[in-house]
C-alpha cells in the first residue's frame, strides 16, 4: 500500500523497472492496448507513450484557452443579446474544456503550471488556427461551423483513445462542443439570409477560414512525424487525410444549404471515390504560421502571458490567505 | 426626486418603446434593474480570457451569464430587448453608475461586485417577499434570480476576504478599490418608482453586510460621502460617468451599423 | 528564472482538488476530474462552476488530491484477486429452476 494519488503522477516507482520486469510490464501494456483496454494513470506505460500524451493533451488544452481569444474579441460587440449570451457561454465552455484537459494531463505527472510555462515560453504549441484574426462578426460563425466542426471531426475518435483520463475528458468536451458548431452554423445562416452586407460578411469569413480549417487536420500522413506511432498506441484512431476528407464531405452540402460557396475551384464530387476531390493545400502557409509567422501569433501569446502575469498577485493573495487560515486554530470554513 | 430628470427623449416614441409605455412605473422599474444587470454583464464579459486563473474565467462568465439572463427578462417586460439595449442613447439608460465603472484590476471588479451583489440580493429578496397578490413581473424575476444573486454575493465575499487578508499588495489594491468605488454606493438606495421596497431598511442592511465583510477582510470602511457632489443627478436619472459612453459605443456599434438587419 | 522567484511561484500555485459529483439523488458521487483552488471553499465553488455548468449535479465533494490513499497497480493481485474466486457472491452463481421468477 502506498499513499500516492490514485489518479496522479507517474506510476514509475512500479517494479524498479529493469530487465525482465520491464519486458513483462511492456508485454502487459501491449496486451492491454491490443485488447482495447484503457490505460489508467498509475499503470506502467512506456516513456514514449507518456511523453506523447503529455504533448498532445497539453497542446489540446492550450488550444482551448488560446482559442478563447479570437471569439472573446466579439463578446462586447455581439449584435444581439441572444448572440451575446451564446458567445459568452461558448467562450466559457472553452475555458472549461481547457480545464478538463489540463486535469487529464496532470494525471500523467506534470503540473498545470509547468504546462502553462511551456506554453508561455513557446516550448509547447497550440493549434495554429487561432493565429488567424476575427475581423468581423461573421468570423464567430465561421469559427463555430468550420473550426469547431474540424475539431469535432478530430475529437470524436479521441473519446475512444487508449488513455482513460484523456478519453473521459474528450467525452465531456464532445458532448458540450456540439452546441458550438450549431450556433456557428445558425449564425452564418442568419447572415447569409440577411441583408446583402450581412451575406457578403458571411462569404468573406468562409473564404478566409476554409483553408486554415483544412490545415487543422495536420500535414498529410506521409509527412506526419507522430501519426504512425500514435495510431499503434491507439491514441489516434484515424489518419490526418482520412479525417480531412471526412470533414470536406460533410461541409460541402452544409455550405450549399447555407447559400455560401467554399473558396476552392477544384472542389467536385468524385463518383468513383464517393467523396469530394479538393484542391492543394498551401502547406507553406501552414509551416510559416506554425513557426510563429501567422497574423496573430505574437498577439495571442502576449495576451495569454499578460493575463497570467497580471493575475499573479491574485493567485498569491489567495494562497497566502489559505496559509493563514490553515495556521489559525479555528477557522470559519471548518465550521461550515 | 424621481421623475425630476426626465431624459430628453423620455416622452417621445423611441425605437425601444413603440407604445410609449416606458413611463409606466412597472416599466421604469424593469428598465432600471434590467440596465443594471445588462451593463454589469457587459463589463464582466470584458474579462473573458483575461482572468487571473482559468477557474476564475469560468466563474466570472457564470456571473455575467446570470446577469445577462436577468437583463433580457427585465428588458423584455418593457419592449424589444435588442432595441432597448442597442438603440437607446446614453441618457436613456437607467442603470446605477456603479455597474458601469471599468473593470480595473481584479480587486476593483470584485469590490464592485460585492457592493452590487449585496444590494441586488437584498433588493430582489424584498421584491420576492411581497404578497402573492401584489406580485409584479419584476417581483417574479426577482424571486427566481435571488438565488443566483446570493451566489454572486458569496463569490464576491470570498474574494474580498482573500484579497483583503491575503498579501500586502492585494490588501493595498483591495483597499484602493473599496475607497474608489464607495462614492457610487449612495445611489443604490435612491428609490426606484414602481418598486415596493423599504429603502431605508435596504440601506441599513446593506451597510451592515458590507461593513462586516470589509472588517473581516481587514479592510477599512470608508468614511467619505457615498455620492459625488453634483446636482446633475445619477444613473437612475440617465446621467452617467465618462466611461459609460465608450462602453455603449462598443456594445452598440455593430448593431447600429446595420439598421434593420436581424442577427 | 532565479531560484527565489521560482520558490515564490511555487508558493502561489494552488493545490489540486479531486472532484466528485452526485449527478442525481439515488446515485453515488462519481469522480469527474480535478480543479485547482487555494482552499476548500473556493475549490467547491470552482468545481461547481466547472463541472455542473449544465446542471449535471445535485451534490459535490472536493478532496485535496494529496490526501487520497490508493492501492497501487502492482498490488492489484493481492488486493483484488481474492474476490475473483468468490463466485458465490454473485447471483449468477446460483441455479434457479426453470419457470421460477422474481428471484
TrEMBL record, chain A:
GO molecular function terms attached to this record: phenylacetyl-CoA 1,2-epoxidase activity
One matching Pfam family: PaaA_PaaC
Enzyme Commission number(s) from the entry: 1.14.13.149
Top enzyme class: oxidoreductase
UniProt key word Magnesium: no
SUPFAM superfamilies: Ferritin-like
Name of the protein this chain belongs to: 1,2-phenylacetyl-CoA epoxidase subunit A
Organism name: Streptomyces durbertensis
UniProtKB/TrEMBL annotation, chain B:
Region annotation Disordered: where it falls in the sequence: 1-27
Pfam families in the cross-refs: PaaA_PaaC
UniProt biased composition (Basic and acidic residues): 14-26
Taxonomy, superkingdom: Bacteria
Protein name listed in UniProt: Phenylacetate-CoA oxygenase subunit PaaC
Gene giving rise to this polypeptide: paaC
From TrEMBL, chain C:
Parts of the chain that traverse the membrane: none
Source superkingdom: Bacteria
Listed Pfam families: PaaB
Keywords for this protein: Oxidoreductase
InterPro entries: PaaB, PaaB_sf
EC assignment: 1.14.13.149
GO molecular-function terms, A-Z: phenylacetyl-CoA 1,2-epoxidase activity
Protein name: 1,2-phenylacetyl-CoA epoxidase subunit B
Species for this entry: Streptomyces durbertensis
Amino acid at each position: 500500500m502506498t499513499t500516492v494519488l490514485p489518479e496522479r503522477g507517474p506510476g514509475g516507482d512500479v517494479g524498479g523497472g529493469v530487465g525482465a520486469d520491464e519486458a513483462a510490464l511492456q508485454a502487459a501494456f501491449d496486451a492491454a492496448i491490443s485488447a482495447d483496454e484503457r490505460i489508467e494513470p498509475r499503470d506502467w506505460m512506456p516513456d514514449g507513450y507518456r511523453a506523447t500524451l503529455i504533448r498532445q493533451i497539453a497542446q489540446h488544452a492550450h488550444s482551448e484557452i488560446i482559442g478563447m481569444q479570437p471569439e472573446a474579441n466579439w463578446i462586447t460587440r455581439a449584435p444581439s443579446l441572444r448572440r451575446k449570451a451564446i458567445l459568452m457561454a461558448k467562450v466559457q465552455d472553452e475555458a472549461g474544456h481547457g480545464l478538463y484537459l489540463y486535469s487529464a494531463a496532470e494525471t500523467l505527472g506534470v503540473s498545470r503550471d509547468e504546462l502553462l510555462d511551456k506554453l508561455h515560453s513557446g516550448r509547447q504549441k497550440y493549434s495554429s488556427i487561432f493565429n488567424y484574426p476575427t475581423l468581423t462578426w461573421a468570423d464567430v460563425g465561421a469559427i463555430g461551423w468550420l473550426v469547431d466542426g474540424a475539431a469535432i471531426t478530430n475529437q470524436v475518435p479521441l473519446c475512444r483513445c487508449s488513455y482513460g483520463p484523456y478519453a473521459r475528458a474528450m467525452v465531456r468536451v464532445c458532448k458540450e462542443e456540439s452546441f458550438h458548431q450549431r450556433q456557428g452554423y445558425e449564425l452564418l445562416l442568419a447572415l447569409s439570409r440577411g441583408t446583402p452586407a450581412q451575406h457578403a460578411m458571411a462569404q468573406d469569413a468562409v473564404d478566409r477560414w476554409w483553408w486554415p480549417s483544412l490545415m487543422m487536420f495536420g500535414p498529410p500522413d506521409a509527412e506526419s512525424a507522430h501519426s504512425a506511432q500514435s495510431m499503434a498506441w491507439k491514441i489516434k484512431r484515424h489518419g490526418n487525410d482520412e479525417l480531412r476528407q471526412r470533414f470536406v464531405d460533410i461541409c460541402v452540402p452544409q455550405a450549399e444549404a447555407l447559400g455560401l460557396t467554399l473558396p476552392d475551384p477544384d472542389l467536385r464530387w468524385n463518383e468513383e471515390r464517393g467523396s469530394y476531390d479538393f484542391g492543394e493545400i498551401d502547406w507553406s502557409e501552414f509551416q510559416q504560421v506554425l513557426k510563429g509567422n501567422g497574423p496573430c501569433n505574437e498577439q495571442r501569446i502576449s495576451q495569454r502571458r499578460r493575463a497570467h502575469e497580471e493575475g499573479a498577485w491574485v493567485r498569491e493573495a489567495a494562497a497566502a490567505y489559505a496559509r493563514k487560515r490553515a495556521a489559525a486554530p479555528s477557522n470559519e470554513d471548518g465550521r461550515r | 426626486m424621481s421623475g425630476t430628470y426626465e431624459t430628453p427623449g423620455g416622452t417621445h416614441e423611441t425605437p425601444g418603446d413603440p407604445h410609449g409605455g416606458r413611463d409606466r412605473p412597472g416599466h421604469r422599474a424593469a428598465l432600471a434593474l434590467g440596465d443594471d444587470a445588462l451593463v454589469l454583464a457587459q463589463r464582466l464579459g470584458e474579462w473573458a480570457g483575461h482572468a487571473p486563473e482559468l477557474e476564475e474565467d469560468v466563474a466570472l462568465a457564470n456571473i455575467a451569464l446570470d446577469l445577462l439572463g436577468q437583463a433580457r427578462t427585465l428588458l423584455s417586460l418593457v419592449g424589444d430587448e435588442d432595441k432597448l439595449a442597442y438603440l437607446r442613447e446614453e441618457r436613456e439608460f437607467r442603470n446605477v453608475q456603479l455597474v458601469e465603472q471599468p473593470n480595473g484590476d481584479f480587486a476593483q471588479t470584485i469590490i464592485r461586485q460585492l457592493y452590487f451583489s449585496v444590494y441586488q440580493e437584498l433588493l430582489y429578496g424584498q421584491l420576492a417577499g411581497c404578497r402573492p397578490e401584489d406580485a409584479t413581473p419584476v417581483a417574479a424575476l426577482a424571486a427566481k434570480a435571488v438565488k443566483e444573486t446570493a451566489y454572486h454575493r458569496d463569490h464576491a465575499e470570498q474574494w474580498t476576504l482573500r484579497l483583503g487578508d491575503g498579501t500586502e499588495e492585494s490588501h493595498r489594491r483591495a483597499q484602493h478599490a473599496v475607497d474608489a468605488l464607495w462614492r457610487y454606493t449612495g445611489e443604490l438606495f435612491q428609490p426606484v418608482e414602481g418598486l415596493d421596497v423599504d429603502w431605508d431598511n435596504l440601506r441599513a442592511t446593506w451597510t451592515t453586510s458590507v461593513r462586516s465583510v470589509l472588517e473581516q477582510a481587514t479592510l477599512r470602511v470608508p468614511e467619505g460621502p457615498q455620492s459625488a457632489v453634483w446636482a446633475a443627478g445619477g444613473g437612475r436619472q440617465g446621467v452617467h460617468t465618462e466611461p459609460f459612453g465608450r462602453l455603449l459605443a462598443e456594445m452598440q456599434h455593430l448593431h447600429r451599423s446595420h439598421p434593420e438587419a436581424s442577427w | 528564472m532565479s531560484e527565489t522567484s521560482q520558490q515564490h511561484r511555487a508558493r502561489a500555485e494552488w493545490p489540486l482538488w479531486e472532484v466528485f459529483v452526485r449527478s442525481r439523488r439515488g446515485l453515488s458521487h462519481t469522480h469527474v476530474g480535478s480543479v485547482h483552488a487555494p482552499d476548500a471553499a473556493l475549490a467547491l465553488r470552482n468545481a461547481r462552476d466547472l463541472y455542473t455548468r449544465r446542471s449535471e449535479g445535485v451534490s459535490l465533494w472536493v478532496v485535496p488530491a494529496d490526501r487520497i490513499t490508493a492501492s497501487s497497480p502492482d498490488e492489484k493481485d493481492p488486493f483484488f484477486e481474492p474476490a475473483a474466486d468468490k463466485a458465490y457472491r454473485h447471483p449468477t452463481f446460483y441455479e434457479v429452476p426453470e419457470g421460477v421468477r422474481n428471484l
